[in-house]
């Protein structure tokens, strides 16, 4: 069920087990490359990672319009008819995305995501790439 680079299987499963309704968890780079996943199909995880790159870019562009802060996206949450989408900054050039159904309580999910990132944030970084190669 887990496909990743590195050994994130236990920690992503722990997040999924800690909050009811989790459908898919994806760790991604800022440019939309899937680094790890739990749940869902690989192709769906790749599509979600690519979409998340656009969402984080949009959120960061909006954030710079605030008079305070540095314009960095911390958390985006979207509620849909059938559930929720969460995207949280997880480290340098890395993000944590979760799709859940309506059983998921948003406050609990964001707290669990934040706790996970605090515990392993230094491992959830993605080095910059140029022409598809790590620099």
TrEMBL record:
SMART domains: Robl_LC7. Residues 9-100 form the Roadblock/LAMTOR2 domain. Pfam families: Robl_LC7. Coiled coil: none annotated. It comes from the Bacteria. This is Roadblock/LC7 domain-containing protein.
């Amino acid at each position: 069920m887990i496909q990743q680079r590195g050994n994130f299987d236990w920690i992503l499963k722990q997040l999924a087990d800690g909050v009811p309704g989790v459908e898919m968890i994806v760790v991604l780079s800022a440019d939309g490359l899937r680094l790890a996943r739990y749940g869902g199909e690989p192709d769906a995880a790749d599509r979600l990672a690519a979409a998340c790159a656009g969402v984080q870019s949009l959120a960061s562009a909006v954030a710079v319009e605030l008079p305070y802060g540095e314009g960095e996206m911390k958390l985006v949450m979207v509620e849909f008819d059938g559930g929720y989408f969460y995207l949280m900054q997880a480290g340098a050039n890395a993000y944590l995305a979760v799709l859940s159904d309506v059983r998921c309580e948003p406050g609990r999910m964001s707290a669990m995501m934040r706790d996970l990132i605090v515990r392993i944030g230094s491992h959830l970084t993605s080095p910059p790439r140029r022409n598809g190669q790590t620099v």
